[in-house]
TrEMBL record:
InterPro entries (alphabetical): NrtA/CpmA_ABC-bd_dom
GO cellular component, one term: endomembrane system
Record keywords: Cell inner membrane, Cell membrane, Membrane, Signal, Transport
Protein name: Nitrate-binding protein
Organism: Citrobacter koseri (strain ATCC BAA-895 / CDC 4225-83 / SGSC4696)
Length: 400
């Protein structure tokens, strides 16, 4: 696949025949056409997969629900998937519980909340303006969209609205829309705001139907976003394949972040019909951290999308997974306090990641499973007292 694109010297496999050989030769990995699927596509096109004795076959999916269903059925071996979707599957939120595994984080940052130009024309440019506008209307007058009920975009949107005192469940109406359909739905007036990954926020600006009101990294700098997810039984049945897959994708992530030139080339590749099927110009700016919000503000973002950052991005931090559990509690998706640590420990496969990182070489694994972050409302997340954190929010879903 794409032999002309191969990085020189990669075609020699690091695995000899024997106990380390991957159990599967071909690995089917689903993806949604978003910028943050990049490590999977680059791993397949640049030959990083072959280096570890597998052939990665990326398969484009239409929605996160389709990714979920194909993962559960076994039609996919693994997938580019929303962090919260995987945790929701494990816990049986709106579905039958399924034992899942997070092999690595694919990226941090790089999502955004878009508001319509109709709101901009009314002088609404931020969450505070929204709060004032909504206060004078009947509940549910304004509709907002995210991409999956337990997904990252839902959590960023809820958090951003709540930071301004807007209850995302009672003050506004929420709907689920697949990423590629966001811009079209805003164009025809189905919602006034949405949260999604790129390139759809940049596309809304280009089409002059919306502007970026907030980036996801403004809500949580260096937040976890998409992960490489699979079923727990798949990992148990194919441990060598899982390690090879993570090694290949980890090397691809390192290649993308190695230079501006590599990021530009990645944008060129992703724009092609087989992958995102969009214009390169919608991808390159925000891949490089060059932001224009479509409302007169331009900046170089210090927390733009990143894929590697000395492997800190990809490590499956337990605290990252636990944060989504705290938000499930906050918004009533979990009625009782879960065993935060135990759930994160069984889903986030740091064992597979460490073996893969050792195979790649030159990587020093983090010494801890938790990391500390400060979010837009000033709350500090450490992972050390998750239930207290979940209960610390003034604004939450009734009954949560």
């Amino acid at each position: 696949m794409g032999g002309a694109l191969l990085v020189p010297g990669l075609m020699q496999s690091v695995w000899a025949a024997g106990s380390d050989k991957p159990e599967l030769e071909t690995v089917r990995v689903g993806f949604i056409p978003l910028t943050d699927c990049a490590p999977l596509i680059i791993a397949a096109l640049k030959g990083f997969d072959k280096k570890y004795g597998i052939t990665l076959v990326p398969t484009k999916e239409a929605s996160w629900a389709a990714v979920r269903d194909k993962l559960v059925s076994g039609e996919l071996d693994a997938a580019h998937v929303l962090y919260g979707l995987l945790y929701g599957l494990e816990l049986g939120i709106a579905s039958k519980p399924q034992p899942m595994a997070n092999l690595m984080t694919l990226n941090q940052n790089g999502q955004a909340i878009t508001l319509s130009t109709a709101l901009q024309e009314k002088g609404i440019t931020d969450a505070g303006g929204l709060k004032n506008m909504i206060a004078g209307q009947a509940p549910g007058t304004y509709t907002f969209a995210h991409t999956f009920p337990t997904g990252t975009h839902a959590m960023w949107l809820y958090y951003w609205l709540a930071s301004a005192g807007i209850n995302p469940f009672s003050d506004v109406r929420m709907v689920v829309v697949p990423p590629p359909q966001m811009v079209m739905n805003m164009r025809i007036g189905n919602m006034v705001g949405f949260c999604v990954g790129e390139p759809w926020n940049a596309r809304a600006i280009n089409d002059r139907i919306g502007f970026t009101a907030a980036t996801s990294q403004a809500i949580w700098p260096d937040h976890p976003e998409k992960i490489l997810g699979t079923r727990r039984d798949w990992v148990e049945q194919h441990p060598n394949t899982a390690r090879a897959l993570v090694s290949a994708v980890l090397e691809a992530a390192r290649w993308i972040d190695a230079s501006v030139e590599n990021r530009r080339e990645t944008a060129q590749i992703l724009a092609r019909r087989a992958w995102l099927n969009t214009k390169e110009q919608y991808l390159t700016g925000r891949m490089l951290g060059e932001y224009d919000n479509g409302a007169g503000h331009r900046w170089q973002d210090a927390h733009a999308i990143r894929f590697y950052h000395d492997a800190e991005v990809s490590f499956p931090w337990h605290s990252d997974g636990m944060w989504f559990l705290t938000q499930f509690r906050r918004w009533g998706l979990l009625k009782d306090a879960p065993d935060y640590n135990a759930i994160a420990a069984r889903i986030n496969r740091t064992d597979i990641w460490r073996d893969a990182a050792a195979a790649v070489g030159g990587i020093t694994p983090p010494s801890q499973l938790l990391r500390t972050s400060t979010l837009i409302d000033g709350s500090v997340w450490t992972g050390r007292d998750p239930e207290r954190y979940a209960n610390s929010f003034t604004l939450h879903h009734q009954g949560a």
